[in-house]
Amino acid sequence: MKKCIYCLQLKKDSEFTIPEHALNQSFGKFKNNLTSYDVCHECNSYFGKNLDNVLARDSVFGFERFMKGIKKANEYKHLGRKSKNVYKADIGILKDLKSYPVIENGEIRLMIDSNQVSLKNFETGEFDLFLLDDLPKKELLNNCYRDKDNHISLVYQFKDGEVNRILKNKNYMVDASKITKTFEDGKVEISREQDVILSRALSKIIFTIFSLKVGLEISLCEDFNKIREFIRYGRNEKEMMNCFEVYKNSKKYNDNNQINGHIVTLKNDNGIWIGEVSFFADFTFTIPLGVDHVNIGESHYLLYDLDILELRTPHKPTSNTPIT
Ligand SMILES: [Zn+2]
User: Fold this and answer.
1) Distance in Å, CA 63 to ligand 1 centroid
2) Does residue 114 carry a pLDDT above 50?
3) What is residue 25's predicted lDDT score, i.e. its pLDDT?
4) H or E element: which one contains 129?
5) How is residue 221 annotated by DSSP?
6) Which pLDDT tens digit goes with each residue over 53-100?
7) A Pfam family matched by this chain, by name (predicted)?
8) Residue 2 Cα, ligand 1 centroid: separation in angstroms?
9) pLDDT number for residue 180
């Protein structure tokens, strides 16, 4: 009999034969794949369906796999409108248009969401963004959005004549032009709603590695029940969502911010275990795992670097990071 590190249920050994990959293999094959046999089949299967797929298919980190060449562009699948990611352009006439990643000719591009349209305001010279369902009334349109030749300038992602159709239904007579400009020349800011599922997926990577490192005697103890229940059942959501941090951190680990690797760090900070996971050294997600167990001295400070989780480029931690 064995106890699962996530549901804490005692189950037969035969319920623990499928390895739980601490970091899903879709993020790269590592020299030494970290796998745990302390996660029961039921939890393993739940994680695969509910957490790992979100991390791979609907997260900044998942998207980066394609940008950094870990995955081929033609393998990209996007969740479309179900996505929680919001991509916004920060350039000229495309400013503030929401977009989503698509595959075109084997490359990933960010395309404008077809639900939006930008109209050039000839009074201000700027483009104003509207949802198709919320276009300005005809009077305003006539006052501000027609040039001296009585033309309206539009920017949108053309889709099946949808924009034309809606405009015609509203009695707008405009010459709509098709613009399929992408954002490749501009900065694209990626924002995301604070997402519980993604936070649980990231916490799972950290906690599985933590358990492998410190062993079952420690990782099964109740000090870590909060993080465990958050990962497995989404409990303690408010508390856990309040205490994680995500920051852009390439400088923290390496001067070279283009490394093709991921870093997981475990450290004991004044009696509290903190876990960090960093993908491609671009973003780091940090979350407290629990208070120190009585058997662990405060000197414990563990770090996994790319000697273990290696994709391509070996990486050494900075000198102010002690390792035991
Ligand atoms: Zn379980």
Assistant:
1) 29
2) yes
3) 76
4) strand 127-131
5) S
6) 888 877 767 777 776 666 776 676 666 556 666 666 555 555 566 666
7) HNH_5
8) 10
9) 35
Residue with tokens 């856990």: 240
Q: How many CB atoms are closer than 10 A to CB 153?
A: 19
Alpha helices in 124-222 (DSSP H): 138-144, 162-169, 196-214, 216-219
**Residue 20, Cβ neighbours under 10 Å: how many?**
26
Q: Give φ, ψ of 194 to 5 degrees.
A: -60, 115
Mean pLDDT of 136-158: 64
Tokens read off for 15: 């319920």
122 is written with which tokens?
Answer: 């000839």
Q: What's the gap in Å between 17 CA and the centre of ligand 1? A: 12
Instruction: Report d(CA 22, CA 208) in Å as an integer.
Output: 6
Instruction: Tell me how far CA of residue 254 lies from CA of 95, 309, 317, in angstroms.
Output: 32, 16, 7
Has residue 309 got a pLDDT over 60? no
Q: Give CA–CA dist 299/269, Å, rounded.
A: 9
Note residues around ion ligand 1 (Cβ under 5 angstroms).
4, 6-7, 40, 43
- What's the CA-to-centroid distance between 237 and ligand 1, angstroms? 19
Find the 12 Cα to ligand 1 centroid distance in Å: 11
- Which pLDDT value is given to residue 172? 58
On average, the pLDDT of the chain sits at: 70
Kindly report the pTM of this predicted structure.
0.65
SS3 229: helix
Ligand 1 center from residue 232 Cα (angstroms): 8
CB-based contact 90:99 (threshold 8 Å): no
Give how far the C-alpha of residue 85 lies from the chain's centroid of Cα atoms, to the nearest Å: 8
- Give 319: exposed, middle or buried? Use CB within 10 Å, 0-12, 13-18, 19+: exposed
Side chain identity at residue 50, one-letter code: N
CA of 294 to the centre of ligand 1 (A): 25
- Among 70, 14, 23, 55, residue whose Cα is nearest residue 209: 23
CB 195 within 8 A of CB 84: yes
46 pLDDT higher than 50: yes
